[in-house]
Amino acid sequence: MTAARVSQSERFKGTRLLTNADMGSAEVRRFCQLSARAYHRVLKLVRTITDLADVLGFRLAYLREALSY
After folding, report:
1. Distance (Å) of CA 57 to CA 39, 40, 53, 63, 66
2. Is the same domain home to 24 and 44?
3. Cα(48)–Cα(57) distance, rounded to whole angstroms?
4. What single-letter DSSP state applies at residue 59?
5. Residues 6 or more apart from 18 whose CB is under 8 A from it?
6. How far apart are CA 48 and CA 13, in angstroms?
7. Containing domain of residue 45, as a range?
8. Neighbours of 63 (CB within 10 A)
């Protein structure tokens, strides 16, 4: 097992989950803590990327880009 698999195995011990990919939204909220400040910063960055692209509305691609920063 790689180090990542070992970490995931420990994290999900006692659950039906095996890997991070198995997490649903409830598990993401439980295991992936994100402060309110970080959450709002990401959303503001998405809004800026959207403005720079000169499009209306929210695009998943822009969220991915914001998270990559």
Report:
1. 18, 17, 11, 12, 15
2. no
3. 12
4. -
5. 8, 9, 12
6. 40
7. 35-69
8. 16
Together in a domain, 64 and 40: yes
**Same-domain check for residues 53 and 42:** yes
Nearest Cα to 21, choosing from 35, 34, 32?
A: 32
Structure tokens at 59: 């695009």
What pLDDT does 1 receive? 63
Q: Which residues contact 32 (CB under 8 A, 6 or more apart)?
A: 23
Token pair 């000169």 is found at 54
Same domain, 8 and 26: yes
Does residue 39 sit in the same domain as residue 69? yes
Q: How confident is the model at residue 18 (pLDDT cuts 50, 70, 90)?
A: very high
